[in-house]
Specification:
Chain B: This is histidine kinase. Chain B: It comes from Lacrimispora celerecrescens. Chain B: Its EC number is 2.7.13.3. The complex is a heterodimer of chains A (438) and B (437). Chain A is of the alpha+beta class and 438 residues long. In chain A, the strands form 3 sheets. In chain A, strands 1, 2, 3, 6, 7, 10, 11, 12 and 13 form a 9-stranded mixed beta sheet that branches. A two-stranded antiparallel ribbon of chain A has the order 4-5. Chain B has 437 residues and is of the alpha+beta class. Chain B folds into 3 domains: 167 residues, no CATH class; 77 residues, Single alpha-helices involved in coiled-coils or other helix-helix interfaces, CATH 1.20.5.1930; 126 residues, Histidine kinase-like ATPase, C-terminal domain (Heat Shock Protein 90). Chain B is rod-shaped and about 155 Å long. The C terminus of chain B is likely disordered. Classes of the chains: A alpha+beta (438), B alpha+beta (437).
Chain lengths: 438, 437
């Protein structure tokens, strides 16, 4: 027995020694922090500078944390990024900090891949979540928890063909214009100019019932009951409004071709597209035959001049071994003014930090790129649109139901069906579907 | 022989259960890893994610972790069964360790396979023989088996399901995989049940053996009693024969001599009275010799103890002998100094005391017996008192009858009182100084 005890003691001692040696070695080894990102723009616009920002952030971070090395894979296209993440995830090698696509956010949070940031945020006194646009911040929330921080935001704006309006001697709409104002302009614009019996000038292109609904003041998704109500009067109003606009076209459908030719007055456009195609070098690529600008969306009777806001999110892997460093790096990317200013400089979106988005410096950067004499969206307007904008729930179910709704609405428009009764039937189907999904 | 066979079968079944569990656990973890690799190879990862509820983190490391835990489990079994099969502390510690190891494996596999608990239960059943702790352990076992169920836990926790990984494959492969999985799970349960049946059999076997031995013992006991009765009878017969022989040899011989001598005297008495007197003296001598002979042959019937020791010592020896062999306590109080009487008196006293003790024990079921002996004038008083059940009505049993006869032969009296326990009072007059010589 004594012999056994001696042997046991010896082996425990040896084990402790090895463990100590391993810990010592680990502590003196350089920590590698993995970062997952995709190349190119999140907003599907051409972008040449996607690495510039990250490289700068990595350099800054490595300088301030000499023991840390940040590693990232370059050259993953946005369309491959989701698969790349999933592969890494299955392999158990998910990066410590990573960009999250809209389509992945819901799945990743439900799988527990994303770290709950609430504790980190509460424990960091230098961090104030109020500094972010609340809409942008909310895109990273789910079930009352913050899982990701916004890196840059992009609101949707209304593209206005200034040349067309000028030709028809219509005044450029004001920022607080309404549905009726827009309908009036569309009615005036829609005509057959070359007298070939077919309309060749149209009011809107791609303006959907969703865009109209956002400005109607209604709310579709009830988070508490997990239900969507399509029979709400404001949903019906929005669809009816779209139907009225559609009726102006006398059954003719508007194409991208018509728009590119300069024959359409209005089209929803993301801020990223606005920045890309309004500035050199891409300015010469698109929309070159006419003068154009962007304004807010027209408001419904009870609504405001707002629109959909998107954000590019970044999160932390819930299984990261370097929680503190990952948080520091995430903050470096999303929460430092210098980095956020780079969003203005090198990217196409709007910084997620309010102070940077509304800064004079930021406005100057945008102005610099523009042609002289071009009017630039004022930063106050931009901030307003973002702060009050609509964020769509990222729930997979929500997306599926909205796609079904899109189909239903286009059917109503094409087949000239009654809006109220069609939507009532549709609501019954959706309620049943959502009930089953619970 | 039978028990040995069952034991080796139980050992074999245990190894089979272990092997099945090793196959299942390693199979599941390797299957998950292989499936993930396959999914990654064909770039179907994102689509696969849509169909699952939870991620298997670090699938490759998990294989090694499972293997390590299984190795520890096997080691613990070897240490318990082979190295310290009789050390209770080691057994208990290793069983608890087994339980924790199993739960770690179950958690690693996200409750997709809880059959490994059966392995622990099989060990527990084998070692825990104590009734109460066995029930507690059974409750713990059943409770944990139910609690460790995937369907139940997946409601409230994020757990991955092996089904999701199986359903990645085409329908035909799915059927194949599912049946393998189900066969392994069922086989494990079946082997466990067989194992339990064997354990029950083994314990039933032990009980049967004990019953059999008991019966044999009973038989032998009865035989012994018969033998002892027979031996008693034989001794009696032998004694009777000896007595007959003695009487024939000594008394017959002497009496014949006396008769012949007296006949001679009768013829001589007229003619020669002097010669007759001589002849009568001779007859007297022969008679005395005859008495001596009879005394000798009687003395051969005396109890062994009395033959060798004094009466007091003999009674004391009897008392200590009985105290030693039975639960009855006997207290002997002798207030007579120099307890030395004639042999027949000693015999009678010894027998009366012996008989009294036997009666008190046999009929009275007494726990304590007090024997007092004292002297009153020329009489000796013997009292045998017990705290047994006594008897309300005196029956002329064998014991009391003998006692009465013996004491009557010495012209003494004996009284019995069965109202409170049982009291025997005997009064025997002693023939002091009266000898045959």
């Amino acid at each position: 027995m004594g012999k056994w005890r001696k042997r046991l003691c010896m082996s425990v001692f040896l084990g402790a020694l090895i463990a100590a040696a391993l810990i010592y070695r680990d502590q003196h080894k350089k920590i590698v922090l993995e970062f997952g990102m995709f190349t190119g723009s999140n907003w599907d616009v051409a972008s040449a500078n996607s690495f510039k920002i990250i490289d700068k952030a990595v350099k800054c971070f490595e300088e301030s944390h000499p023991n840390v090395k940040i590693h990232y894979y370059s050259g993953i296209a946005k369309e491959d990024y989701s698969e790349w993440c999933a592969r890494k995830l299955l392999e158990g090698k998910m990066p410590d900090v990573f960009m999250v696509l809209d389509s992945d956010f819901d799945k990743f949070t439900s799988l527990g891949v994303m770290k709950d940031l609430d504790v980190l945020m509460a424990g960091d006194h230098a961090f104030h979540k109020e500094d972010f646009f609340s809409t942008a911040l909310n895109t990273g929330r789910r079930d009352g928890r913050q899982y990701a921080l916004p890196y840059e935001t992009v609101p949707t704006l209304m593209f206005v063909n200034k040349s067309l309006l000028a030709k028809e001697s219509i005044q450029m709409p004001k920022e607080d214009w309404t549905w009726e104002d827009m309908y009036e302009i569309c009615r005036k614009v829609t005509k057959d100019t070359d007298k070939d019996g077919l309309l060749d000038q149209f009011g809107t292109y791609n303006y959907s019932w969703r865009d109209a609904f956002y400005t109607s003041g209604g709310k579709l998704y009830d988070e508490r009951q997990d239900q969507l109500s399509f029979t709400d009067s404001r949903v019906l109003d929005a669809i009816k409004y779209i139907k009225r606009l559609n009726d102006l076209n006398q059954g003719q459908s508007v194409t991208q071709e018509d728009f590119n030719e300069g024959g359409v007055a209005f089209m929803p456009l993301t801020f990223a597209e606005y920045r890309t195609y309004k500035t050199y070098p891409y300015r010469i690529k698109k929309y070159t035959r006419f003068q154009w600008d962007c304004i807010t969306f027209p408001a419904g009777r009870e609504g405001e001049n707002i629109s959909k806001v998107d954000a590019l999110l970044m999160g932390i892997n819930s299984k990261t071994k370097h929680e503190r460093l990952a948080w520091e790096f995430l903050k470096q990317l999303t929460y430092t003014e210098e980095m956020q200013m780079d969003v203005f400089l090198y990217s196409q979106g709007v910084p997620a930090l309010k102070s940077v988005a509304s800064s004079k410096e930021g406005a100057n950067i945008i102005q610099e790129d523009m042609d002289e004499g071009e009017q630039v969206i004022s930063s106050t307007l931009l901030c307003n649109v973002i702060e009050n904008g609509i964020i769509e729930p990222r729930l997979l179910q929500y997306q599926q139901v909205m796609n079904l709704a899109d189909g239903e609405v286009s059917k109503i428009l094409q087949e000239n069906k009654n809006v109220d009764s069609s939507m009532k039937i549709f609501q019954r189907m959706i309620s049943k579907y959502l009930q089953q999904q619970k | 022989m039978e028990a040995k066979k069952i034991n080796s079968r139980i050992g074999l079944l245990q190894v089979v259960i272990l092997a099945l569990n090793v196959i299942s656990v390693m199979g599941i973890s390797i299957f998950i890893y292989r499936t993930i690799e396959k999914i990654r190879r064909v770039y179907a990862a994102r689509e696969f994610l849509n169909g699952i509820q939870a991620i298997v983190w670090y699938p490759y490391a998990k294989i090694w972790l499972c293997a390590l835990l299984l190795l520890l489990l096997t080691l613990s079994m070897i240490i318990r069964d082979r190295l310290f099969p009789n050390n209770n502390k080691v057994i208990l510690t290793s069983l608890v360790a087994d339980f924790f190891l199993c739960f770690m494996i179950i958690i690693l596999l996200n409750f997709n396979y809880n059959g490994i608990l059966l392995l622990v239960f099989s060990n527990v059943i084998m070692y825990v023989k104590n009734g109460k702790s066995r029930y507690i352990l059974a409750a713990v076992a059943i409770g944990s088996f139910i609690l460790a169920d995937y369907e139940l836990l997946s409601i409230s926790y994020r757990l991955y399901s092996i089904q999701d990984y199986i359903s990645y494959y085409s329908a035909s492969v799915q059927q194949y995989l599912l049946s393998i999985y189900n066969i392994l799970v069922s086989l494990n349960v079946i082997v466990f049940v067989v194992y339990c049946v064997n354990i029950i059999n083994e314990q039933q076997g032990n009980l049967d053996e004990i019953h059999g031995l008991n019966e044999k013992l009973q038989e032998v006991n009865e035989q012994l009693q018969k033998y002892s009765q027979m031996a008693e009878k034989m001794a009696e017969t032998r004694e009777r024969n000896r007595l007959a022989r003695e009487i024939h040899d000594t008394l017959g011989h002497t009496l014949t001599g006396i008769a012949a001598g007296i006949d001679a005297c009768l013829t001589m008495i007229g003619t020669s009275p002097e010669q007759t007197k001589k002849q009568l003296e001779l007859i007297s001598k022969v008679t005395r010799d005859g008495i001596k002979d009879i005394r000798r042959s009687v003395s051969e019937l005396r109890p062994d103890a009395l033959e060798r020791f004094s009466l007091e010592y003999a009674i004391n020896k009897m008392v200590t002998d009985i105290n030693a062999v039975s639960e009855t306590r006997i207290y002997f109080d002798c207030r007579v100094q120099n307890l030395k009487f004639d042999e027949d008196e000693e015999n009678a006293i010894y027998r009366v005391v012996q008989e009294g003790i036997t009666n008190a024990m046999r009929h009275g079921h007494a726990k304590e017996i007090w024997i007092t002996m004292k002297r009153e004038n020329q009489d000796i008083l013997i009292q045998i008192k017990d705290n047994g059940i006594g008897c309300k009505e005196m029956k002329n049993g064998f014991g009391t009858k003998h006692m009465k006869e013996r004491i009557k032969m010495l012209s003494g009296v004996v009284t019995f009182d069965g109202s409170d326990g049982f009291i025997v009072n005997a009064r025997i007059p002693i023939r002091r100084g009266e000898t045959y010589d």
